[in-house]
Amino acid sequence: MTRHHPDSLTLMEYSAGNLTEPRALCIRLHLAECSHCRSRVDTLDSLGAVMMDQQPKVTVSETSFEQLMARIDAAPEDTSPVVETPRLSPIQKLLGDDLDNLPWKRQLGDVSVLDITDKFADQSERVVLQKLCAGGKAPAHTHKGDETTVILQGAFADKNGVFNQWDFVSLDEHDEHRPVAVGNEDCITLSVLSAPLKLTGTFTRLLNPFIR
């Protein structure tokens, strides 16, 4: 069960088709396993279609956005069962291999990475798979820009709580954390970064000039 979700504005941008392809992929992976967010996107899609049909008659007030968000939050949750489909099929289609068989490269300590930015044409953002070995700790860090992450396998914990498979995480320069993999399997995430992360540990910060 997913416990961490995209916010309303992010779902609205997704519904409107305004997200980059890597960030939209993170949303799609989350939606495949989250009936709550699927219901909200369905509502947004329906409202968008109505607004397009009535576009010449629509007037927008200063409170329109707040009213729209309240309507979405008040919509009943879709409790229909999830149709079983092969897990990670979008990732497997993108990479052509299983997560465990990818050419991971050790980055720092317990963290390995695989840069897949070249899978997305004409993208200014960096797209990476990150693997934190079971029980391992990532270096303390913050971010120089925005980072969107979805957990593909396993789970990690930080000061904000526990993030399980298919949970959605959005961070920026105001967030500092040190993820720790929990459970008995490696934690693998897909992250989209608008700028490099910034190490904040006493010694690891010396490596910042070498971090992409």
Automatic annotation (TrEMBL):
Q: Where is the ChrR-like cupin domain?
A: 99-190
Q: Name one Pfam family in it.
A: Cupin_7
Q: Which InterPro entries match?
A: Anti-sigma_ChrR, Anti_sigma_zinc_sf, ChrR-like_cupin_dom, RmlC-like_jellyroll, RmlC_Cupin_sf
Q: What is this protein called?
A: Anti-ECFsigma factor, ChrR
Which taxonomic lineage is given here? Answer: Bacteria, Pseudomonadati, Pseudomonadota, Gammaproteobacteria, Pseudomonadales
NCBIfam families, alphabetized: anti_sig_ChrR
Domain of life, source organism: Bacteria
Residues annotated as transmembrane: none
